[in-house]
Amino acid sequence: AVLLLVLLLAVLGLFGWLYARSGGPYPDYAVDLVKPAPGAAVTPDPQFKVGVAMRDITPDLTQYDKFVDKNGNNKYEPAKGDYFEDTNGNGKLDAVWIAGFGNNRPAQGVHDPLWARAIAFENNGVRVVLVTVDSIGLFAEKIINIRKRLDPALNIDHLVVSCLHDHEAPDTMGIWSVGLERPFWRFDYGYMDLLQQSVADAAAEAVGNLRPAEAFMAETAVGPEGFMDDSRIPLVYDNVIRIARFVDPGTDNTIATMVNWGNHPETVGSRNPLLTSDFSHYWREGVEKGVAEPLGAPGVGGMCLYFQGQVGGLMTQLHTTVPHRNGVDKFREDSFEKAEALGDNLALATLRAIREGSRPMETATVAVAAKTFMVPVGNKLFSFAAFVGLVHPGWWKGHVRSEVNALRVGDLEILTIPGEIYPEICEGGVEAPEGRDFPIQPVEVPPLRAQMKGKTTMILGLANDELGYMVPKSQWDVKPPFAYGRDSDQYGEENSFGPDVPGAVHKASMEVLASLHKALGE
Q1: What is the pLDDT averaged over residues 294-321?
Q2: Worst-scoring range by mean pLDDT, 209-218, 368-377, 394-403, 499-508?
Q3: HEC secondary structure over 360-389
Q4: Which of 201, 216, 241, 388 pairs with 413 at a CA distance of 20 to 30 A?
Q5: Torsion angle defined by CA atoms of residues 196, 201, 203 and 205, in that order, rounded to the nearest 10 degrees
């Protein structure tokens, strides 16, 4: 009887601990922000201001164990003779685990630095900062942690953090740091602290660098041929690069160039052992410093910030043949040459649009609306992982907390999406094919971009959270008979939080856009 009582108390204690843990580190955190307030007089200051800063977030590999890859397959497999130098004597391989493809990808070097790049905007009493991070993704509680690291004296009204979904960067989500080949849980909390502090520091410095600016907008369509493929039916693309360039008033001196386009940074493939920002590196370098001959172009200087777009579907270049700008060479297999060719082509398209199609920004009002909302989790594995705090900590009766934002920077309107949204939800084209799992018509309508009112619009993916693939519910298809006459299901649902996520995100996005427009009197 005593033993049963002890066991009962132990079980109750375990459930109590799990329940207390299930709310995550910030159970009471919520955002409900609109600034300027609806109805308030919006009087732009004499000079619109912009500031930028960046921080290197590349891990120092000399601080990790070095392993010997006997067969050169870029995996740690002790059964095949691989071994490591245990520098701290803990008997475990302390490595930087690369995220994005399969598990067991220990980094063996650095091809190019990883960055957190921040841009601050200020006008009419509103100050916002946007940061783009060379990372696979960050869950909501990490964003909250970054915000709490900011000095209140900075007077930042809102911070947006968007990740590139880089498949050649360290695991920042805890998904790629587990495996049978090594100790079960090897998540790198030290690197996470470095990354979060670096993002906060970049945001703070960007505010400190605020200075008067003028802005120019541009856009240009690319591909999809030679740039990306949609690997899932229906084939819907957002193939437009949207550009915002900020310069010192009355000059051509660039402060920053923001670019927004959707594609997975995974050109070098799953067998690459080097940390890199993939094609993003060459794109940013090309915009800043220029693209070399043949058929190159000079850069515009300043800092280039690439904010990820719509990558669900999924948008990839893995099976794309990318042409070299010389018009002769072509690259299909995974390689840095292919990544460079893609990045250079994107840079050339961007530079051409800047020089041939830029239009000055006519207004300079800064405004922001932000909203916390609850997301139903239909994926049982992700729901359990959230409940116990392993993935996306913070679980409430089958829901997790997330966030959407809408911002206006003069003629530029920005919508943030907390994951990998399918382009048909934003651009139009959601279908209800025969064979779908749910006998419903499209839920995520109307298209989100059509609801945006800026002369230039950007939709930032993986912003302030990562809820995985957002498959339209009327296209959800894991049970036979399969849609589009297929013999098997398509890729996507297994990496989604569930079929009701995109509907919840769409609804919250519509609401936050309406709040922004109301605040601006539109």
Answers
A1: 97
A2: 394-403
A3: ECCCCCEEEEEEEEEEECCCHHHHHHHHCC
A4: 201
A5: -170
Q: How large is the average pLDDT for residues 329-347?
A: 99
Position 7, amino acid: L
Cα distances (angstroms) measured from residue 326 to each of 156, 329, 349, 353: 46, 7, 15, 20
Backbone angles phi, psi at 514, to 5 degrees: -65, -40
Residue 31: which of 392, 405, 413, 510 has the closest Cα? 405
Q: Which of 368, 360, 408 is nearest to 245 (CA)?
A: 360
Cα pseudo-dihedral 195, 56, 148, 510, rounded to 10? -90
In this structure, are residues 139 and 195 in contact, taking their beta carbons and an 8 Å threshold? no
What digits encode the pLDDT tens for the residues 424-435?
A: 999 999 999 999
Flag the least confident range among 3-7, 152-156, 332-336, 470-474: 3-7
Secondary structure (3-state) at 229: strand
Closest CA to 435 of 479, 388, 381: 479
pLDDT above 70 coverage of the chain, percent: 96
Relative to beta strand 126-133, strand 115-123 is: antiparallel
Distance CA 181, CA 185 (A): 11
Q: Distance between the two ends of the chain, CA-based, in angstroms?
A: 71
**C-alpha distance from residue 113 to each of 81, 316, 337 (Å):** 31, 22, 17
| pLDDT tens digits, 188-226 | 999 999 999 999 999 999 999 999 999 999 999 999 999
Coil, helix or strand at residue 425? helix
For residues 422 and 264, give the distance between their C-alpha atoms in angstroms, rounded to a whole number: 13
pTM score: 0.95
pLDDT digits (tens, 9 = 90+) for 147-159: 999 999 999 999 9
Does position 339 have pLDDT exceeding 80, yes or no? yes
Rounded Cα gap, residues 469 and 459, in angstroms: 15
pLDDT-derived band at 24, boundaries 50, 70, 90: confident
d(CA 208, CA 224): 39
Q: What angle separates helix 2-22 from helix 380-387, to the nearest 10 degrees?
A: 100
Q: Say how far apart CA 308 and CA 464 lie, in whole Å.
A: 12
- Decide if 486 contacts 286 (C-beta within 8 A): no
CA–CA gap between residue 416 and residue 404 (Å, rounded): 6
* Nearest partner of 260 among 281, 239, 243, 280, judged by Cα: 243
